[in-house]
Every structure is written in C-alpha cells, then in structure tokens.
Give the backbone structure.
Amino acid sequence: MANEAGGISRRSLLTSGGIAALGTALAGCAPAEQVPRDPVADAVRPVVPTGEHQAGIARPAAVQPHLLLGVYDLDGGPVGVLARLGDSILALTSGDHPALAGIAPGDLSVTVGVGPRLVQQVVAEGPGTEPLPAFPREDIDERHRGGDLVIQVCASDPLVPPLALAGLLADTSALTERWRQRGARGPSVAVRGDHTAPRNVLGFVDGIAAPISVDERAESVWIGQGAVAGASIMVVRRMEIDLAAFQRLPVEAQESAIGRERASSAPLSGGAIGDDVDLQAKSPDGKYLIPADAHVRRAHPRPAGVPLMLRRSYSMDDPLGLLFVSFQAELRTFTQTMERMSESDALLDFTLTTATGAFLALPGFDAQHPLGSTIFGAA
C-alpha cells in the first residue's frame, strides 16, 4: 500500500514482510549505484524480530558486538505497554521508525522481559514468578535490584542501540528507569561447529560451554509448557571487576583461577577449547589439574545438577567489568550454579555485583499476535 508520496506505509511494512518489503521498495526506487553504501549494513544480516521466540536470545547465532540494556518500573498494566513496544520493535528493525534518523538498523535485535511482580498478576507460581535471591559479594541498593521490565538492545552499529532504546521509550510514557548499562564484545573465537565466543576484559574466552543444538535449547533454555510456554528466564547481573588486582597475578595463577589456558582457552585438564573439562583429571602426584576453586569447576553444570545456561554476556568499560546475561528454562539453573560458586570460586574474589534481576523473557510475537499477549492477553 503506497502513501501519498509514493512510498510505503508503516502498516504495509509490518504486514507484508517488514525488512523484505523495505528492501524490495528500495530496489525499485533507484538504480543500485545511486543508493549510498553503508559499510556496517553491508557487513551484517537483518535479524528477524518475529517468531516462536524473541530475537536476541538464540538468534542471531553470532552475537552483535554492542549492547544497551535498561531496567524499568511500570506504571499501570502491562498489556498496552507491551503491545506498543512490540509495534516499535517491528518498526525499528524494519528501518521504519523515525528514532533511527535514517540510520540502517542492520542486525538490530530487541529483547523484552518482565519482572516477577507482573508475572504474578497472571500466574500464581512457576517460571518467572520468583525474584533473584541475594548472594555474597554484592553491593546492591533497592534501585538496582529487580524491576518490572528489562529491555536488551543489541546491534553491530554502536549508534543503533541508544537510538533504538530512545525510540522505544518515546513510544510509551509508562516506564520509569531504574538503571541502564552499555557493553561491548570483542571478536569471537571459534569453539566448535558454528559456536563462537568472545574474550572478556580478563583476557579469557567467555561463554565456551553453551546449549547449541535445537534439542539442547529445548531442554535448557525454553520453557516448554504451561502459561508461559515459549518464554525463558533471563538473569542480568552487573559485575564490577578489580582488573588491576587480577592482572597482578602471574599468568599461571590467572589460569588456575579460571581453569583454562589464557592463550588457547583449552581446559587445564587437557584437550582443545571445545572439549569438556575433565573434573577428575589429576597430575602424577595426585593433584587435580583443574583446582578445586577454579571457576570452570565451580560453575560446571554437572556437579550443580542443572543443564547448561545460554550466556550472552558483555564486557563493560564504565564501570569496568562484565554485564552477565543468561537465559535458562528454570531459575534454579542459575541459582544452584551461583550457590556452588559462592562456596569457593577464585574468580569471585575479584568481582562485586552492583545490579541484578531475574525476568521472564517473553515468548515471540508478530504483527497479528502482540508482544506479551500469550501471557497477559491482548488489549
């Protein structure tokens, strides 16, 4: 459907394929050589925002290098706000939102989660109704714990996340910000198959162990049934890291604290980066090759009795540290892992968590099924 100026209306974009329709329209407007080239847009592929699950969790497989995450309180009911956010996400990812000011969205993805207070309004108990408990090595005030809504915005172009988040907030006046954090990821390292992971500010590859296959994600990431089927539990923790203290350690001591070689990321128990750690491997004199307090031992899912979590963490420069983001089908996947780490994890000696929260990352949506409508209903 054309508008009076001969262009394409927002409604037609959203109902006829969004990005595909926009690309077709641009291709028909002018010869290719007359369209300005955007190197960033050329280097990335658009991320489809619709489907069974939200974007920004398992897709794109190659996680974007820039993130902006905000946590908010909600004034009023969630139905209308979530629907407007969904509409804005469709407009932003299709390039049809004024907030981007003509900048191509590229591989922009937006992920929205709701806090326990909102979930408890429609579900008495179960996934998404539990707040995240307190753990050792935290210094968190009330403003930086919990919240009603989390918005994660990721893209390859560093200009896109702040512009997109500003557009999302401008489209609804019902949100009051608690805190926000930006993060960045460096080049990824090949782990196994198509799975890659970046190095963090400590210099070690972060996110090596992950649920990769469809079956693994069905088991450990997605909530498979019940009132919140298709959703996932999203845990967010802002951790400041005493990098200077960690770097004063000899490299061998750093590797013992992590449980991997710094250069190759191979586990100290032997093998390559993509191999599982052998927690029973010992030296000839009977010492564990992976120390008892090494991070990879304390965070390993097998001793904790939980499945893998899907991590999409980002390094931070202000404050210096790590914005930990994980997705799991059950909150206990994170809490039981954290309990083991809190008992004795050498890495935690260098960290202080200053913001935290658990949210229900909503199921997927499209133009006909508003964001959040499968849980909260439609307006």
